Amino acid sequence: MGSEFEPELLRRYGGNAPRYTSYPTAMQFHGGITLDDYAQAAARSGSVAGLPPLSLYVHIPFCADPCYYCACNRVITRQASVATNYVTRLLKEIELRSRLFDPARPVEQLHFGGGTPTYLGSAVLAEIMGVIGRYHALSEAPARDYSIEIDPRTVRADTLSSLRAAGFNRLSLGVQDFDEVVQRAINRRQSATMVADVPLGQLRSDLRTAASDAQELRKDPRACHRHASRSHCALWLRPHARAIQGSAPVRGRRPPRCQFAHQPDRSGGTLAVDRGL
Which of 71, 224, 228, 242 fits 247 for a cystine, CB–CB 3.0-4.6 Å? Predict the structure, then answer.
């Protein structure tokens, strides 16, 4: 099978790397960083000509149940008061941080991650988006990238329309495995049908195709390129984070995606879908 990837890219990105789910990454933060450092960095970001766009990230750490593989900053609770106190402080922080940025700078990218952001409910999420829009220049352009992570086990049919009305135009959801044994082990039980039934219209058809591809790959891992190119979704595979029975991999190590494409783990993979609402 021929490779579609540049050897130079493999050499550049084929080594160890920190977790990249946030930027700057955790390695850039330490006790010596002060509020003045943050303010100076914000000033530098706006010192270029014109109005450089902003990318905003909002962390909602709450989950009703733990997924055993997750290494994100999270709070497992079913006490609504805990989330209410957090949101109150979050809205205040949005106001305080906004003073460091020109309110006319357009927000091109916005992401709500977690945790489970939809834990808060549509009304609270809309309130947070409203406060962000009060202090920043949110966009209504189709090309904007305003995304939110969802849990297919808890999203109802009316959730997506509420998220769209709040300003989100992309959703992100993940599937670690469709094998029920693995799902029980990681405390994340969700069928392929449940995942595919979350969105509406063409995206539902796309997800059904991708879910079917992922299940078939368990039987024929060599078919990865064929399915990835055929599927309408952003489909890629990676080996499990083996955090069960003491078989965890070296922390922070992630080979290039092309290696996963050519040599996927035979025990299963991750279906990552990121599509527009």
Answer: 242
